[in-house]
């Protein structure tokens, strides 16, 4: 659409995640792009992606993308770290729409933040074993030493509401020991749930270690890309519309998701993602 | 088949679970019915069932049953507590084959074990919220007081290999506090992974509390039912065949599963359970 010679696009942004965690990314987009409409799909019936095979993650991600495309969106944000790590490259080849993942923005920020070139990355087994963050960081800074540690317990700890308990602290001490021994000065929180653990992680790593939140960095990247492609809305002072879809029972999503977003989630619909 | 007037059935037993945990049930069946062939299906692409809606668990369970029926089996064991709790009743109505779940054998054993009629049950959110164990135990012993506590972190702790660590102990102390306050003398381990935590659970609950392992009780029930229906093998002194199917990458199953069974797992095939 062209208004007064300036291209604009008032269609919504599509965001998907393997479940609830991607709401930390959505929250940052809502704050940094307050006028944009957003459609969020959480694949709650098939969470977690982090333990699944490459082939399965790509299949699921393509199904999520096809669902969002059916809603006439202008760009897609892959909020899930596992899906970004494993399926983003294939997806950008297969679909003709801007698709933004969380890996590159997170990797960029970590390279800017480090002073001793020692960077830690934590995430699900799928994200860490894919080496996506590690490879990207080494591409951006050839002299960097990157250590990836899978922390599969953290998601459940957050969903249990135990982010600030001794269980979280003990688990963090076990998982992060190797990163502390290697004296990393920057830690990428490579899973959407992890920003909720940031106080515990900061306590365990020490105040001198910079925690990078890819959710925040991704929202910045989305804004830059929409601007560059003239896809921002032209009427940003309106109340935006947020529509949510999930593949399993909406109630748990409404409850835990509401805590993450810190506002009530309305407009949730269940979709049968396997048989669309 | 009839041999010398005695009915026999040399077809395999089918066992399914949401993933790897059901191997604790398989192990007990292998020990108590050493001559029987077994076909195991682990729905590793869609694990965990414990956090999913009733409707989804029933749909998935029926798909698992249909897959096993295609292998010409003589009975089905639902090794998954969540599927037993939610889908067993519907399944026994829908399919004309003996189907044995883990709930009833576990409930029976707890009622026999308790002395003060105070019984605790731990499991996934799905199992506990279904009230399946609690209802069954109250049916069997009207004067019993049953307290169910969901312990979602335990599965991940076991899969992480942390069953005997401080993280497991701290998590157990948090989860089991209410059961200790209520002075239960019997604790049902209502999730297939939990027997692997039994030393930690016993340490936290105290030696006077009897831990009931439904996997062991279920294998006993399978033996009784096959005997009663004349479905036992007639040639038990042969080397049995074990065939495994999974819905996601077989490698993780081979590795973690091998630790649970304490023997190497061969004969694993991947099946596309969603599109059979």
Automatic annotation (TrEMBL), chains A, B:
Gene responsible for this protein: murI
Q: What does this protein do?
A: Provides the (R)-glutamate required for cell wall biosynthesis.
Does this UniProt record's set of keywords contain Metal-binding? no
Q: Which residues bind substrate?
A: 17-18, 49-50, 81-82, 192-193
Q: What's this protein's family per the entry?
A: Belongs to the aspartate/glutamate racemases family.
Report if keyword ATP-binding is assigned: no
What EC number(s) are associated with this protein in UniProt?
A: 5.1.1.3
Offer one example of a GO biological process linked to this entry. Answer: peptidoglycan biosynthetic process
Lineage, top-rank taxon, reads Bacteria
**Active site residues according to the UniProt entry:** 80 (proton donor/acceptor), 191 (proton donor/acceptor)
Q: What is this protein called?
A: Glutamate racemase
Show the catalytic activity: L-glutamate = D-glutamate
Q: Which UniProt keywords apply?
A: Cell shape, Cell wall biogenesis/degradation, Isomerase, Peptidoglycan synthesis
**Organismal lineage:** Bacteria, Bacillati, Bacillota, Tissierellia, Tissierellales
Q: Which GO terms describe its molecular function?
A: glutamate racemase activity
* Biochemical pathway: Cell wall biogenesis; peptidoglycan biosynthesis
Q: Which Pfam families match?
A: Asp_Glu_race
